[in-house]
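the two lines:
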Amino acid sequence: MSDAALVGLPRQIILDEVVPARAPWDHRVHAGETLRILDLEGNQAVDFLLYAADDDAERYSAQDTIAAQRNIFLRTGSVLLSNEGRPMAQISATTVAHHDTIGGACSCESNTLRYGHHTKSQHACVENFLISNALYARGKRDIVSNINFFMNVPVEADGTLGIVDGISAPGLYVDLQMLMEVVAVISNCPQINNPCNGFNPTPVRVVIATEPFEGR
Amino acid sequence: MFMGASRTADPVGARNHARGMVDTRIEAMPTVPATKADDLPQGVEPDSMLWEETIGGGGYAAKELARGARLRLIDLKGDACVSMLVFNAAHPAERLNVADTLKVQWNAYLKAGQLLLSDMGRVLMSLVDDDAGTHDSFCGPSNERSPGAGPNWSPRPNARERLLLGAAKFGLGRKDLHPCINWFKGVRVGEDGTLSVQTGPFAAERRLVLRAEMNVIVVLANCPHVLDRREAYVATPVRISAWRGPVTPLDDPIRNAAPESLRAFLNVEEYFRR
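prediction for all of em together
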């Protein structure tokens, strides 16, 4: 295991894939496993949702998470809470200072507001979320405020906020240790109208790792 | 006890007992019909009234409002916290999107002149008047595990279950509960992301008026803010009033205040084009 990108992970690698630029990705992750998301080329927003595997009406809640930690930024140690107030995962490590969970996902429809109706036909994160969730018989009502790993959304003193140039870089990562059985859904953000992907969507790498079974 | 003493031992007695409650008035109740409103908004004809109700601490209500209707909330005693969900009444899979509401308007703090946006690039409601200025789009409703809140059947009902009940009255369920807005209690974000919470109590009678820009279902719950750390369960009554109003005209200042706002209205006008 000489790959520097795997340093710090539990020793048994269960999955190691590249999510192409603009693509969705989903996977069931067991409690105790660690999901690492690597920003391969730097400043690539990764839109992210979690659903409880056994009852998908329980899902990641940005508002519960923010209220419990009294902070809008996700950092090492942040616990991702569900809409039932239960811990779903913890950010066990990250080499980026903080991640966003107030900006939500881009959609064809919100793009028409932010940039104009000429952007309606462009690919968007909500399209990816809908496609991935459809595999689990989930639909539009299952799309809620998500996490944007590697995305930077500051709030200024007067309340002005916006997606600005990123603070990530090639090879930086975030590790999520799962605290319940979940399905993780990713949209590797295809946005080209704001700096969340440096105006150039790029691939990311996802790795799932666990401690090897040391049974007798 | 001997049975003869009971007034409700037979159906006629029970009926008389039940009917004897007529005209009972308490603080937390609706005025029906709303045309007999106690607190008629200035300039509104009684016949235009659609809804008047006082929601007590821990209470909730849900209502369908037509495009153009005005919805006024008054924090009667200065310590209410009203969590709100909004749906497109015709297709409730379209609903308030708090993230888009903030991101599209480049602003973290709701104030007069701003829009509540759906996840379909349309404006569900506009905030046409607001003298409170302390509102929260970040923290969501309390839930059963929140400090200070309890289950729905307890004397300390949590806001999430109240919203669930309100939504359920329209056939909606757990998956329909989306991130909410908390009116009257405020949150401010520091440079490092830290939240400071403004739980009051505030001056009595602070108020806001929303205008329905689509046919909407609103669900309201009046429970202590999720970060309200007071020992007592404090949520003072809020008065809800709604009345009929005209559809927003093309020269409306809120419609034209920003390019993003204008496009949100254009998308609504396109939706209703027949």
